[in-house]
TrEMBL record:
One MF term in the entry's GO annotations: ornithine decarboxylase activity
Name used for this protein in its record: ornithine decarboxylase
Pathway involvement of the protein, from the record: Amine and polyamine biosynthesis; putrescine biosynthesis via L-ornithine pathway; putrescine from L-ornithine: step 1/1
Any GO BP: putrescine biosynthetic process from arginine, via ornithine
Species name: Pleomorphomonas diazotrophica
Length: 381
């Protein structure tokens, strides 16, 4: 929560649930990453929050960008950032989107199988692109992450050398390895095992005459929610030590893809209590319904993985556990029930609540008019 956001809400009084993002926090976070990992290029994960103002600020600061689609690539190019600052980081791309990216000048692509390599090779030949670079994403243990990633993206490390050699034989530049240690990763040592795997793949390909150059360290850098998290500098030290431990004097190029860690703490959602009720007369547990839920931007409460700090005007008074839910006619739209949320007993219908740490993965997860509710409004200050 920042004074600028509170002043904005007090003076503008926006109607309905809305997200307010403070660009000063985004700038501070970018500078913290640059200071913590000075030899690593920053590729902001656009999917976290693609607000034009956020992208423009980061472009002006010199950030590069991790994009998942052609529209995201076009949004980045609209800032004036050049295509050599873009990575097409989605491992699941339509071939026509690969062609469009190449036409726009994008030259760095993620893959995790030979079929994806073939798409890029075919379109590089069709568009006359020479030297298109690919990096192979590998699976890694996401232990310690509050939002762990599934096996949807990446291949087993033992398969990566074959994928990259296939790219090399297809005329592409086998450029490096990537991985993701899981979102909201609190374990400073989470990168160590993946870097060990990456180093082994570098060595195996060198024996085949292919020199890899880059390790994409992914994202995973956290935002502070209800629990303290290590400082950015601590992540930087741990990662730098792990890189040098596994690569020795042959340190590769490195990039990171912060999303949540860049913008999560810069945003706060203003919402309203719509209803407070009980399920039977003797029930000691209240149900508190807000005008925003999973379909309005709080999808990361799924499985109660992300527990956002919630502030009210009654803070400091007695509290009791509540079930917190959204407003839609869908039984899945319950935010916290397995572990009820402590809220003030004096909370009333019509009270505003402030949900902190919501600058990332909220507007991008907001449904378009599900049950007729408008998408989450966003203000950038």
């Amino acid at each position: 929560m920042t004074a600028r956001i509170l002043d904005f809400l007090a003076s503008r009084r926006p109607e309905g649930p809305c997200l307010v993002v403070d660009l000063d926090v985004v700038r501070d976070n970018f500078n913290a990453f640059r200071h913590a990992l000075p030899d690593t290029r920053i590729y902001y994960a656009v999917k976290a929050n693609p607000a034009p103002e956020v992208l423009q600020l980061l472009a002006d600061l010199g950030s590069s960008f991790d994009c998942a689609s052609i529209p995201e690539i076009e949004m980045v190019l609209a800032t004036g950032a050049t295509a050599d600052r873009i990575s097409f980081g989605n491992t699941i791309k339509k071939e026509r989107d690969v062609a469009r990216a190449l036409e726009l000048g994008v030259n760095l692509f993620a893959v995790d199988c030979e079929a994806e390599v073939d798409k890029i090779a075919r379109q590089a030949e069709a568009t006359g692109t020479v030297g298109a670079r690919v990096f192979c994403r590998i699976l890694c243990d996401g232990a310690g992450a509050e939002w762990p990633l599934s096996r949807k993206f990446g291949c087993e490390p033992s398969m990566a050398a074959e994928v990259l050699e296939h790219a090399h034989r297809a005329g592409l530049t086998a450029y490096g390895i990537s991985f993701h240690v899981g979102s909201q990763q609190a374990n400073l040592d989470a990168w160590d095992g993946a870097l060990s795997s990456a180093s082994a793949i570098f060595g195996e390909l060198a024996e085949r005459g292919i020199q890899l150059k880059m390790v994409n360290l992914g994202g995973g850098f956290p935002t502070r929610y209800l629990k303290d998290v290590p400082a950015t500098e601590a992540y930087g030290r741990s990662i730098d030590e792990a890189v040098r431990r596994h690569f020795g004097n042959h340190v590769p190029e490195t990039i990171i893809e912060p999303g949540r860690g860049m913008v999560g703490g810069a945003g706060m959602i203003k919402a309203e209590v719509v209803l407070i009720s009980k399920k039977h007369r003797d029930d000691e547990q209240r149900w508190v319904y807000l005008d925003i839920g999973k379909f309005g931007g709080l999808a990361e409460t799924m499985e109660e993985a992300i527990r956002y700090p919630i502030r009210t005007r009654h803070d400091g008074s007695a509290t009791a556990p509540c079930v917190l839910a959204g407003p839609t006619c869908d039984s899945a739209d319950v935010l916290y029930e397995k572990t009820p949320y402590e809220l003030p007993i004096s909370l009333e219908i019509g009270d505003e609540v402030l949900i902190e740490g919501t600058g990332a993965y909220t507007t991008t997860y907001s449904a378009v008019a599900f049950n007729g509710f408008s998408p989450l409004k966003s203000y950038v200050i």
